[in-house]
Structures are given as C-alpha cells and as structure tokens.
Design brief:
CATH superfamily: Phosphotransferase system, sorbose subfamily IIB component
CATH class: Alpha Beta
Helix content: 25-40%
Strand order of the largest sheet: 3-2-4-1-5-8-9-10
CATH architecture: 3-Layer(aba) Sandwich
Shape: globular
Structural class: alpha/beta
Distance between the termini: 40 Å
Number of strands: 10
Largest sheet: 8 strands, mixed
Number of domains: 1
Radius of gyration: 15 Å
CATH topology: Fructose Permease
Strand content: 25-35%
Number of helices: 6
C-alpha cells in the first residue's frame, strides 16, 4: 500500500484561519485540508465557517484522531494533504497511530491558564512539553513557523519545562 502524500502537518489551534491557511496551502500545494480534532469532528456546526475560510477548490475534511489513523492509508495518490491539529497531543497520537509524519510546523498555540509563552504566538503547558519531547524522541522534526515566508525556528532542545527555541 502506498504512503499517503502528507505535505505538511501543522499545529494551529485556530485551524483554518483567514489568509494563514491560504498561504500555507499555496506554499505546499495541497488539495485536501484535513482538520484532525475529536471535538471539531463531532460538532458539524463548526464546519461551515471553516469550509468558507478554506481556499476555493480545496477539499476540507473533519476527522477525529482515531478516524484519521484508521483511514489515512486509504488516501489516493492524487490527494495532497495538509493536516491541521490543535495540539501536540493530537500530533503525537497520530504519529503513534502510524500516520507517516516526519516534520511538524507549529504556528499558533493560544495562551491560557497554566501555559507559558515560548514565543508571541506559542504558549505551552507541561502536557505540551511532554508531547514535544516524545515527538522529538520519535525522530519528528519540530519547528515554529508563522507563515511560509517566515524563517522557521527549530526547537532544538528542551530546557526544564519550556522548549528552547533557537533564533537564527
């Protein structure tokens, strides 16, 4: 069975957000945006606004983590996939479930109670850091990149509870 053509896996808790997804879609050339999140997949009322924000002519699907694990290998060669997840935990579950992800781009993780800002757009808590550490141990490359035209900041190592992001 052929591997699915996953062009980019991105953590962005806004999922499809204005020009952001349009720019990423254009940069990687996907024709399918796969939103992977258990809550979104279970609430079809949230789908319409996201579909409206998606680039014209791009398929948009909303799957739970487990459904993605179960069917990603049935993707056809003509499906060029941009996977969007809300959290490092969802990304880790996909990787552990056999979804062939080698690199994850981190775009936006909202600040909140118990979270510490790593960059202006990325805030993490202990569970996020633990998931990032495990992803690194599994050989997944992690980078923070806001827009395709931005220089990515690789997460090179972890100090204490907070990922250290090198700035070039």
């Amino acid at each position: 069975m052929a591997q699915p053509k996953i062009l980019l896996t991105r953590i962005d808790d806004r999922f499809i957000y204005g020009q952001d997804v349009e720019l990423w879609n254009e940069a990687v050339g996907s024709n399918l945006v796969l939103i992977v999140n258990d809550e979104i997949a279970a609430d079809s009322r949230q789908w319409a606004p996201m579909r409206a924000a998606a680039p014209e002519g791009i398929w948009t699907r909303f799957f739970s983590v487990q459904r993605t694990i179960d069917i990603i290998h049935t993707a056809t060669p003509r499906q060029w996939i941009l996977i969007m997840v809300a959290s490092p935990a969802d990304a880790l579950a996909l990787v552990k479930g056999g979804v062939p992800i080698t690199k994850i781009s981190i775009g936006h993780m909202q600040a909140g109670e118990g979270k510490r800002s790593v960059t202006p757009a990325v805030a993490v808590d202990g569970a996020d850091v633990a998931a990032f550490k495990e992803l690194q141990k599994l050989g997944i490359e992690l980078e923070i990149c806001y827009l395709p035209s931005s220089n990515p900041d690789p997460i090179q190592l972890v100090i204490g509870d907070v990922p250290y992001v090198s700035a070039f």
